[in-house]
Amino acid sequence: MNTPNWNRIVIKVGSALIAPNRDGCSSQYLLSIANFIVRCRMSGIQVVLVSSGSVAAGAHLFEQVNDSSITIKKAMASAGQQEMMATWDRLFDFSTAQVLLTHADLRNRDRYISVRDTLDTLLENDILPVVNENDTVTTDKLKVGDNDNLSAMVATATQADALIICSDIDGLYTANPHLDKSARLISDVIEINSDIYAMAGGATSDVGTGGMKTKIQAAEKATSHGIQTFIVDGFNEQSFNQLLEGNNPGTLFHPHPDPMLEPMHWLRHTTLAQGELVVADEFSIDEDLTSDVLTSNDIIDVNGDFSAGDVVMLRKQNGEKVAKVTTNYSSCLLSFVATQDDEQINRTLDDTIDPILSEKYIAKME
Ligand code: GLU
Questions:
Q1: Smallest Cα–Cα separation from 230: which of 158, 153, 148, 157?
Q2: Class of residue 168 by CB neighbours under 10 A (exposed 0-12, middle 13-18, buried 19+)
């Protein structure tokens, strides 16, 4: 038996575990998870909990219980969040802290760092952060989309060693085991590629929003930052005993051997491109990305409406994504630059203005 070599972990718990009947919260399945968190903390492992369940917990308070419109869901989340927090709080004899986040918070570098610092400070003071999406203020466009991806972003921000995603199934199967008897559990995933995504299929739970696909997206985000990621059966107490014994009770996605540095990872996996800079198909960039890889002559077209400092996608005319970059100029100015065929004007522009790309953040797409 080897106790796991973790300093810090993130555990993600979905709605199906917290409010299994959509009739308020129940501690039925949470006791073993809470026990796992307590045992981790007793072994000196810091834990961040990412918990869904506010919508499921609040649903029974509304006449429109089956209404799936965004407005009703946000109201349900708002009404249920407190009950979700209170349910967890009752299971611990240490303090918990509510942390509500949106994608807009995380894709803004300053706010991302502020979130990271707050989580670090909570952990240093032995307080258990309980993170959920701030559903009340999100719009469709800004939504992280699901707590699986949110948990990976939190794991990266907190530099966790492991991300544990509790599911209603014990891991990733070669096919949907409810439909295909020959489906078998995949214990280890070394590389997340299209074959792995193809196995994910659709959602398995009718209470939460995430299916296997969002769990794999989360694993891809986390492992590319060097964080080992587990999908385990959260309904089975044995999963947690096995984890504490250093065993893999479900699917383990192995950390990338050459993890991305944190600022690049943030740019690649957390930000949303606000527009596109289109370059020729022959355009290529070296491993060592610097801000002068792109000159005004290279830009063929500009798509979207963005401001200086925004993140945009550098892509080829054939659609291939080259890199996510931060521009020093707005779409308006770069559109003007793109229409200038005159070499002389372009040279003058490149000599007199700052580089088109900000040196700080350029992340090559795979
Ligand atoms: N924020 C949602 C809730 O608390 C959960 C979203 C999800 O399950 O992924 O109900």
A1: 148
A2: middle
Compute the distance from residue 132 Cα to the ligand 1 centre, in Å.
Answer: 7
Question: Could you give all domains of the chain from N- to C-terminal order, each with its CATH number?
Answer: 8-265 (3.40.1160.10), 273-364 (2.30.130.10)
Identify the CA nearest to 169 among candidates 92, 235, 237: 235
Name every residue whose Cβ is closer than 8 Å to that of residue 67 and which is 6 or more positions away in sequence: none
> 10 Å Cβ neighbour count for 310?
20
Report the distance separating Cα 15 and Cα 289, nearest Å: 42
- CB-CB neighbours of 351 under 10 Å: 7
Per-residue pLDDT of the chain (366 residues; tens, 9 = 90+): 466 899 999 999 999 999 988 778 999 999 999 999 999 999 999 999 999 999 999 998 998 767 778 888 889 999 999 999 999 999 999 999 999 998 888 888 889 999 999 999 999 999 999 999 999 888 765 555 689 999 999 999 999 999 999 998 999 999 888 888 888 999 999 999 989 998 887 544 444 444 789 999 999 999 999 999 999 999 999 999 999 999 999 999 999 988 888 888 888 888 889 999 999 898 877 666 665 677 778 889 999 999 988 899 999 999 999 888 888 889 998 888 788 766 666 666 666 566 677 665 667 776
Alpha-carbon distances, residue 208 vs 128, 178, 180 (angstroms): 23, 18, 23
User: Ligand 1 — pocket residues by CB below 6 A?
Assistant: 14-15, 52-56, 77, 132-133, 135, 146-147, 208-210
Of 51, 156, 139, which is closest to residue 103 (Cα–Cα)?
139
pTM over 0.90: no
Ligand 1 centroid from CA 151, angstroms: 11
